[in-house]
Amino acid sequence: xxxxxxxxxxxxxxxxxxxxxxxxxxxxxLVGRNREKLALAAQRCGVANVTTQTADFSQLDANEAVxxxxxxxxxxxxxVLIAHGDLGDQLASxxxxxxxxxxxxxxxxxxxxxxxxxxxxxxxxxxxxxxxxTSVAGDRGRPRNYTYGAxxxxxxxxxxxxxxxxxxxxxxVTTLKLGPVDTPMTxxxxxxxxxxxxAEVAKDIVAAMDAxxxxxxxxxxxxxxxxxxxxxxxxxxxKLTFLSGR
Length: 246
Known about the structure:
The longest helix has 29 residues, at 97-125. Helix 1 crosses helix 7, helix 3 (63-74) runs parallel beside helix 5 (97-125) and helix 5 runs parallel beside helix 6. Strands 3-2-1-4-5-6-7 form a seven-stranded parallel β-sheet, with helices on both faces. The chain has helices at 12-24, 35-44, 63-74, 90-95, 97-125, 146-167, 198-210, 222-231, 234-237, 241-244, and strands spanning 3-7, 27-32, 50-54, 79-82, 128-135, 171-178, 215-218. It is an alpha/beta fold and 246 residues long. It has one domain (3-244): Rossmann fold (3-Layer(aba) Sandwich), CATH 3.40.50.
């Protein structure tokens, strides 16, 4: 039995991940902002040993205590998934630093404020695994979402360094680079064949973390798509509106 800690636990994907661990008989602690949604997520885990905790991750100075309380509730931790984030409004972020900062805090700074105490705890126990949901948007800046992409790109680099730091302590760090997924966060986006489904994406996340994969594209086919997007010369990229358009 693993002790599994999930931050941003009320998202569609995180709820599916929690259900997989519940089916395994793991002990689960769910942390999120909305008490009612947390209760529903816990209910979907059935008879599993599930506890919940409310927290607003944008309150950066409080996140060390949030982590400490979560570890205490689980009486230790083996596996951590950080799943929260916010696409925000790209156009608003171009006009207002307040809007840009909201995206940066939601997708980068708040995650780092959780990772520091998590990493320190697991480094001390010399065991465990960390998974963090980032995005394919972090692989290249595009006009449609470059503020969000910049936050995810910074997080990818942070996780690279953290992974190497924790290697000697036998703590794995998995960067989960998700393509678009059909969830409430993308409800205003036109759907196409490359959109993932939460249940399938959750299975891929758990499999990648079980395998201690350093970086995983989810769904898998983004591993073939993103090298092309990343390596297209900028002069050509700017002319390809299907890549560089809004």
